[in-house]
Every structure is written in structure tokens, then in C-alpha cells.
Amino acid sequence: MRVFAIDTALEACSVAVLDTGRGALLAQESQPMTRGHAEALMPMIARVLDMTGLAFAEIDRFAVTTGPGSFTGLRVGIAAARGLALAAGKPAVGLSTLPAFAAPYIAADDTAPIVAAIDARHDHVYLQVVGPGGRTLFAPRLTPLREAVRVAAATSGAPRIVGTAAATLAAQWPTGERPPGAVEQRGAPDIGWVARLGAAASETGSPPKPLYLRPPDAQPQDAAQLARR
Known about the structure:
Elements: E1 2-7, E2 12-19, E3 24-32, H1 37-52, E4 61-67, H2 71-88, E5 92-96, H3 97-108, E6 114-121, E7 124-130, E8 136-144, H4 145-153, E9 160-163, H5 166-171, E10 182-185, H6 191-200
Parallel strand pairs: 1-4, 4-5, 6-9, 9-10
Antiparallel strand pairs: 1-2, 2-3, 6-7, 7-8
């Protein structure tokens, strides 16, 4: 299976093509950024596809991160994946950024817990805790920072913390508690693992949709609406 993976959910614009038959990435590119995903993505897609020597018709599946993450960034990647999949007549699958952060650590050692944490601003984080064997101990949700620290510190063993809020959680770690086993501050998940998760994901038959876990910050202002005649 050839999987074309896209990630624009957080602090990077990333694209990769995985060939599961060869067990290798055919090409990949990633650029750190917090803005400008829309302008960077399509040229990056063209470059990566050119590196593989493949046509879009030769891609078997498209995979894209669906959140949580930036409202604008998520829509850029999802719209691209859905459009490409439709044009190629191939399926598209959506993947949460939290398991994407955790995946390489589970693969390296599935006996230790992993805390995936994404900065949600306003003293909140998006949090998921994964235990031995990849079992979810704390389902993905929006959590106040203080509660996230409490949950992470109460996890058995020395949890590994990864994500855009990893350093923040570590800095707030309770005095006297066993320290984290590792702290990996990352702005975005590894695109290669997004591709691998995309290959393993089940097809739902529905196009990928954003996973926000909270309502948007911007809300319509009723007072600013013009009266209808």
C-alpha cells in the first residue's frame, strides 16, 4: 500500500509517502511553521510526489491529521487530503494528533506510559495518556493545565511526556512526585508515523473531519448583525 500523509495541524507543514510493501518512506518533507500552511502545502505536495516518481493515481490512500490543533491549519490539510483523494478516486483517513505523537514511543517501548499533551492556550491542554500495550488510560480531551499535571503525575511508573505542551507539564510537575521518564517537546508529530498510522487505520467511508475537542475562540457577534428587512 502506498500512503500519502499530510500534517498541517500544529507547528509544521509536513508531507510523506509510505510504501508498506517496501516498508519504507519513499519521500518526505517537513517545514516548521505556525502560519502559512496554506501557501506552503501544495508546492510541498508537488515536490514530494515528484521525488517518488509516482502519479496520484498510484497512491492507494491519503492520510491527514484531524486534530486537535490549529483551526486554520487543520482545515488546510483536511481540505487538501479530501480534494486529492476525490480527484484520485482513492480513500482518505483522518488521524488524531495525540496518538500520532505517542506512536513512536509505543513502538520503541510499549511497557511505559506516555502522556501526549498539546498546548490549547488559556492554561488548558489537549491531553491523552496511553498505558502499557498502547491501552488508553485517559481519553483525549481538553483539560485545565493543573488537572493535566495531576493526571500525568498520578500515572503509574515514570511517564514519558511528548507534544507541544510537554515542557509546560514538566515545569509544573509536583514536588516530591517521581519525575517523568522523558520530556520531548515537539511542535508536530513525526510525519513518517502519521503515514504508518494512516496505513493501519480502518476506512470509515466518510471523509476526514476536524477534531477540535472545543468550540472555536471566535464567536459570531449578534449585536453586529445587520437587521433584516
